Amino acid sequence: MVSHLTTSLVLAIAGVGASAFAGTVTVEQHAGRSVRVFVPTAPATPTPLVVMLHGCTQSADGFADATRMDALAEQNGFVVAYPEQSSDTIPTKCFQWYEPAHQARDAGEPKQLADATDAIARAHGVDLERVYVAGISAGAAMSVILGATYPDRFTAIGVIAGVEYKGASSAADGFAVTQSGGPDPDQQGTVAYTQMGARARAVPTFVLHGTADGVLAKIKRRRACSERRAAGRAGRRRCQRAERSALRRPRLARVRGRILVTVSCSS
Predict the structure, then answer these.
(1) Rounded to a whole number, what is the distance in angstroms from the first to the last CA of the chain?
(2) Quick one: average pLDDT of 200-216?
């Protein structure tokens, strides 16, 4: 399923495989937030769950439409959940990855998202060993945090235009980080691994960043992958990079049976 997740993310961003789909869409309330949930017509056995975290100013519906992930879920039999950040919480609707209050286990947004994910998984008969999270921009930064704080809940993570773990400690710091880069990624990898505690393991990670991205500096792609490599060293993981100039023909790298790949792409 990790390979399916990686391929699905690439195809969704590229706008491939977005044929008409059936399935069921509901809006559910979990852990104090609204979550758009798509359940395919014929769920796979066992059934995976992919949690999709939107970027700033986006909505769950808008993110679902933009990524077309529901169509891929219908084709592959997995459930998709889109937690929504309310404008009542923060006007920009950004997940607050840059605030220390939302960077640790059992606190803030990571706890809310992990609890919501558990509730959705149990409500829809999902295999708890096949739960994945991916996001874009602020959602990608939060997926990195979830990979570090809840490696026992999320099997793998997807990072599309994101940053390294604890890459900022305030909103102003977060803005600066997106433009010029953040802390040393090797150091942050160690911080991420330490945060895992007794649950520490190498978390398979997919990192994608557009070379024409005008919001997040390209250095963040290198730093995000470097941080993930550093976090995985204690788990004896090696990361390979697949450099591509466009998404039309993505190449996926397998390391010891796991998808571990960095794709550089033009928008």
Answers:
(1) 27
(2) 74
d(CA 71, CA 20): 7
- List Cα–Cα distances, 174 to 26, 75, 102, 177, 178, in angstroms: 33, 37, 13, 5, 6
Q: Return the DSSP state at 47.
A: P
pLDDT at residue 238 is higher than 60: no
Query: pTM of this prediction?
Result: 0.79
Nearest in space to 164 (alpha carbons), one of 179, 152, 177: 177
- Which CATH number, 3.30.70.260, 3.90.180.10, 3.40.50.300, 3.40.50.1820, labels domain 2-235? 3.40.50.1820
Question: What are 35's strand-pairing partners?
Answer: 28, 83
Q: Specify which residues 254 forms β-bridges with.
A: 259
- Residue 161 is predicted with a pLDDT of 83
Q: Determine the pLDDT at residue 99.
A: 95
d(CA 219, CA 233): 21
Contact present, 162 and 140 (Cβ < 8 Å): yes
Say how many CA atoms lie within 13 Å of 117 toward its Cβ: 28
Q: What are phi and psi of 166, to 5 degrees?
A: 50, 45
The residues annotated with a catalytic role in the active site are 137
Task: Classify 31 in phi/psi space as left (phi over 0), alpha (psi -120 to 50) or beta.
Answer: left
Q: In whole angstroms, how far apart are CA 188 and each of 16, 81, 142, 182, 236?
A: 34, 28, 15, 10, 17
Determine what percent of the chain falls in helix, strand and coil, rounding each to the nearest 5: 40, 20, 40
Count of positions (residues) in the chain: 267
Q: Using alpha carbons only, what angle is made at residue 61 by residues 56 and 66, rounded to the nearest 5 degrees? A: 75
